[in-house]
Amino acid sequence: MVVHDAGRDLVTRGEAGPLLGWSVSELKRWMLAEPGWPPPVRKDGKALLYDLAELLTVRERLHPRRVRHWTEQEDAVLCDLELTAQEVADCIDRTVVAVKTRRSKLEVVRYRHPIHDQWLLAKTCIVCGVLRQRDEFLIAGRLQRRVSTCSTCWPALLAERAAVVQARTARSAGHHGAEWTGPEIEIVLRPDLTAEEVAAMLGRTYNAVVTARWKAKHLPAWIERFHL
Ligand SMILES: [Zn+2]
Asked: 187-194 contacts: CB < 8 A, separation 24 or more?
């Protein structure tokens, strides 16, 4: 933390390093090796504090910064994706950090990562075991993920799963066959509940809930009856 003191900015040596463009150990090395660095102006607790402006002046005198602008030729080498950052650095006499910084600034990416399954070409269906094109697998479910079952096997699998859930909910479907009421339809339409959850809450079967949801979506006249 920079301390403001009578118009001066006081910093520890650890804080000064990055502000001077060096690592902490580099600054320490230079301060020990070279005469002419300013002495600390204050001691706060255990840390010695230096006047930042004095440090910057001395740094400029002892190690004047030469900014090398990037040339078109250097950028051309940089954009060669066959080369690692180290190889580019060796070619054009720059540091690896400088090369990486420049590459990220120019958005030159060596290894691009796929977004979801954009690179997927084909996969094997877990039901029929056939290797099929990517587009033969639907994107489904709340998470909008690509399913592992091909679109040929998918309807049968869905029917099988629905039959299992239907059998499970049928056991507790005490209201089966009764007229739907407005409060029930409100629960049916809740997007945070699965059809099975709704069925269990209302004592209906899974199929009844799925049908009610379908009607609510496709038959405006039917849903109007409940005055929601
Ligand atoms: Zn299949």
From this structure: 188/212, 188/213, 188/216, 189/213, 189/216, 189/228
How far does residue 137's CA lie from ligand 1's centre (Å)? 9
Q: Residue 139 C-alpha to ligand 1 middle, in angstroms?
A: 15
Residue 131 CA to ligand 1 centre (angstroms) = 8
Burial label, 48 (beta-carbon count in 10 A; 0-12, 13-18, 19+): middle
pLDDT for the residue 134: 94
Ligand 1 centroid to Cα of residue 206, in Å, is 26
Q: Which CATH number fits domain 3-62: 1.10.1660.10, 1.10.260.40, 1.20.1050.10, 3.40.50.920?
A: 1.10.1660.10
Contact criterion met (CB below 8 Å) for 185 and 216: yes
Give tens-digit pLDDT for 167-218.
999 999 888 888 999 999 999 999 999 999 999 999 999 999 999 999 999 9
Query: pLDDT tens, 106-142?
Result: 988 887 778 788 889 999 999 999 999 999 999 987 7
How far, in Å, is the centroid of ligand 1 from the Cα of 28?
Answer: 66
Residue 120 alpha carbon to ligand 1 centre in Å = 17
